[in-house]
Amino acid sequence: MALRIMSILVIEDDPKTGDYLKKGLRESGYAVDLARTGTDGLHMALEHAYDLVVLDVMLPGIDGWEIMRTLRARRDLPVIFLTARDHVNDRIHGLELGADDYLVKPFSFIELVLRIRTLLRRGVVREAEVFEFADLKLDVLRRKVTRQGVEIVLTNKEFLLLHLLVKRQGEALSRTLIAAEVWDMNFDSDTNVVDVAIKRLRAKVDQPFDKKLVHTVRSIGYTFGEGA
Fold first, then answer.
1. Potential cystine with 57: which of 12, 61, 83, 186 (Cβ 3.0-4.6 Å)?
2. CA neighbor of 159 nearest in space, from 171, 167, 148, 149
3. Rounded to the nearest 10 degrees, what angle do helices 156-167 and 175-182 cross at?
4. What domains are defined for the chain?
5. Vertex 82, ends 76 and 85: CA angle to 5°?
């Protein structure tokens, strides 16, 4: 049985960029339609069963923000913003509207294809944007952590570590798993990089507060919750 060709809708008003994307994605094995206005793009996205949409923000007719709002209200399909708007607030806004990814122009075509493949492989899986547990709140998009309303300043790795613990709360996570997820590496069992990072995280997240949330699981690793 022949494999189904995945279909992509590109909504891009710049003629050169639109033609480049259409040609390149077709050569990468996808069926591609191109809309050059926001009005046409929204109509096509709602009328046809595309597997993914590549969406610009600044478009004639209807802008990308409005297209994203409408799609999320009526359809559930992967959307990648591809735009020259590179301010962090624009990225946050796009992701808050429900986009699955946000890539800034000028962009690497190879990177775009890899992101498209990742989204199509995993399907539409939206992770929570805000986690709340006990008196702790973790905002993924804004990279902000608070306890009892007090903001806690974390390094990038500390934030990633806490994010992993919180989203897997109640699970006993091994040091090997934590190292692979947070540092993207395998390490020798004698290496204490995870233990050192946990100690620093506890000093910020647990030590100033009565209720402790990060716990050691003997002979395994660590867990997040209200009890050991």
1. 83
2. 167
3. 130
4. 7-122 (3.40.50.2300), 130-224 (1.10.10.10)
5. 120
Average pLDDT for the chain: 88
For 17, the token pair is 């960029």
Q: Please state the rounded mean pLDDT for residues 44-55.
A: 93
Length of the chain, in residues: 228
First to last CA, the chain: 52
Angle at 217 between CA 211 and CA 218, to 5 degrees: 130
Residues 170-173: contacts with CB under 8 Å, at least 24 apart? 170/223, 170/224, 170/225, 171/223, 172/217, 172/220, 172/221, 172/222, 172/223, 173/220, 173/221, 173/222, 173/223
Query: What whole-number distance in Å separates Cα of residue 72 and Cα of residue 53?
Result: 12
pLDDT surpasses 90 at 3: no
Residue by residue, DSSP assigns 176-197 as HHHHHHHSS----TT--HHHHH
Report the candidate in 99, 108, 62, 106 with the shortest Cα–Cα distance to residue 84.
Answer: 106
